[in-house]
Design a protein that fits this description.
alpha/beta; 231 residues; globular; 42% helix; 6-stranded parallel β-sheet; Alpha/beta knot
């Protein structure tokens, strides 16, 4: 919702109050309940995921475990959502796509590093951190690649750290959606139990609630323009 950047925080709060008048009390209560657990301390990056089932299942896990931002790198493959798997989770998340060039991985990861994120590659081939031992103090981006090829060489080389799910069977790796669910469950659980300030800022919370409200209200931009024009 880039068009919201023209408003300051006080104006955004007025807009939110206005939009909520079009939404049921039950939905408003759900918004207030869910927003308390949303975080940008952890974000998720998906590099060239091409299977709609896996792509959608990861979004569902992100919503379930409170991850607000998902960064989608499209190099060779367009990211497709299977609505039967995602179950509407995409409309509650901020999805950022990187598809302007032939190879978008470096652009995405550089941008995240500039925003203060550590890049954490998920791979079974690096004997580094586990979900239980990974340090949570600094915000970080969990980077997932395809099941067939894994992460690209460039993605692995740009990673600050590596994380793996310990396994004791014959199979070398987990399905990406399962791996994401396991990591997010453990890491967000540890984060919420810590003293780290992991929640959304006041403005981030307001922006997110406006986005959620806009997703269930008809023609929200027109309503907001009319409302602000009468102030």
């Amino acid at each position: 919702m880039k068009w919201m950047t023209q408003y300051n925080l006080n104006e955004k709060k007025q807009i939110l109050i206005f939009l909520l008048t079009f939404i049921s009390e039950n939905k408003q209560r759900k918004f207030k309940e869910v927003i308390r657990f949303r975080t940008r301390h952890i974000t998720v990056v998906l590099e060239d995921i091409y299977q709609p089932h896996n792509a959608s299942a990861v979004l569902r896990s992100c919503d379930c475990f409170g991850i607000q931002d998902v960064h989608i790198i499209e190099n060779k493959n367009a990211y497709e959502i299977n609505p039967d798997v995602a179950l509407g989770s995409a409309k509650w998340l901020n999805l950022m796509k990187y598809n302007e060039t032939e190879f978008n991985t470096i652009t995405c990861l550089t941008r995240l590093k500039d925003q203060g994120y550590q890049i954490v590659a998920t791979t079974p081939h690096q004997d580094d951190f586990t979900p239980e031992s990974f340090p949570l103090e600094n915000k970080f981006a969990l980077l997932f690649g395809t099941e067939l090829l894994g992460l690209t060489t460039e993605a692995l080389s740009m990673a600050n750290r590596y994380i793996r799910v310990p396994m004791v069977g014959f199979t070398e790796s987990l399905n990406i959606s399962v791996s994401a669910a396991i990591l997010l469950h453990t890491l967000t659980g540890r984060l919420r139990s810590s003293s780290i300030n992991w929640g959304l800022s006041n403005e981030e919370e307001t922006d997110t609630l406006i986005a959620w409200a806009s997703s269930v209200v008809r023609k929200p931009e027109a309503l907001i323009r009319n409302f602000m024009g009468n102030q």
